[in-house]
Amino acid sequence: MGRRPSLLYLFEALMRLYRDMAHYASILRAKEIARRMFVTNSFDGLLSSLGIVLGNYVSGTGRLDSYIGTVLGASFSLGFFSGVVATYLSERAERLRELRRTERVMLHSLRGTIYEKAAKLVPIYVALWSGFGAIVLPLIGVSPFIAAKLVDASPPLHVLVYTSAAVMILELFGLGYYLGGISGENRLVSGIRMALIGLGSVAFFTILHAVS
C-alpha cells in the first residue's frame, strides 16, 4: 500500500490532539469555561462587526474592501490577541497554580504525569474555542461582501449591508438558541431575545442614516 498523504496524516494527528484536549477538559470541568468564552466572544465579535458594517454604511463608505478589511482586522485583533493569546495565558496560569497547589498537598511532584499534561493542554482547548467565535462568526457575517468580491458582482450597497446584518442577526439567534438549551429555557425565546439585540443595533443605525 502507498503511504498516506501527508496532509491526511497531519489532519489525523490534529484530531487526536483535539480529542485528548477535549478529554482532559472534560476531566477538569473546563468545557463549561470554554463554552462561556465561546459564547461571550462570539456575541462581542458579532455585535462589534455589525456596528462596523453599519457604521461604514452610515459614513458613506462604498468600497467592499473596506467592509471586509475592517471586520477582518477587528475580529482577528479581538479573536487572536484577546480571545486566544490572553485566554491561553490566563487559563494556563490558573491550571499551573492548581497543579502546584495539588503538589504541595500531596507532597509529591506531578511532573511527567497525566495531571501535568492536562494542565498544559486544557488552556489550549479553552483558548481555541474562545478565539473561534470571535474570528469565524464575524467572517461568516460579512460573507455577502466576500461573495460579491469573489464573483466580481456589483449589487446595490444597501442590499449587501442589510444582507450581512441579517446573517449576523441569524447567528445571534443561533447563539441564543444554544444558550436556551444549556439553561433549560425555551430555546426559541432565548434565540429571539438575542436576535432583538442585533435588530436594535440595525434600527439605531438605520434611523441615524435616515436623518444624516
Secondary structure tally: strands: 0
Describe the main β-sheet briefly: none
Mean pLDDT: 88
Give the uncertain stretches in residue-range form: none
Give the N-to-C terminal Cα separation. Answer: 69 Å
Q: Could you state the order of secondary-structure elements as H and E?
A: HHHHHHH
Assembly type: single chain
Using the CA coordinates, give the radius of gyration.
Answer: 21 Å
- Report the principal-axis shape: elongated
Overall tally of domains = 1
Summing up helix and strand content along with how strands pair, one would put the structural category as mainly alpha
* Approximate strand percentage: under 5%
Helix proportion of residues, in percent? Answer: over 70%
SS element count, helices: 7
Which SSEs are present, and which pair or pack?
Blueprint: H1 6-27, H2 31-58, H3 64-106, H4 114-141, H5 143-150, H6 157-183, H7 187-211
Describe the 3D structure.
This protein is an all-alpha fold and 212 residues long. It is built from seven helices and no strands. The chain has helices at 6-27, 31-58, 64-106, 114-141, 143-150, 157-183, 187-211. Helix 1 (6-27) crosses helix 4 and helix 5 crosses helix 6. The protein is elongated. The mean pLDDT is 88.
Question: Could you give a quick summary of the protein structure above?
Answer:
The chain has 212 residues and is mainly alpha-helical. The chain has seven helices and no strands.
Note the main attributes of this structure.
212 residues; 7 helices; 85% helix
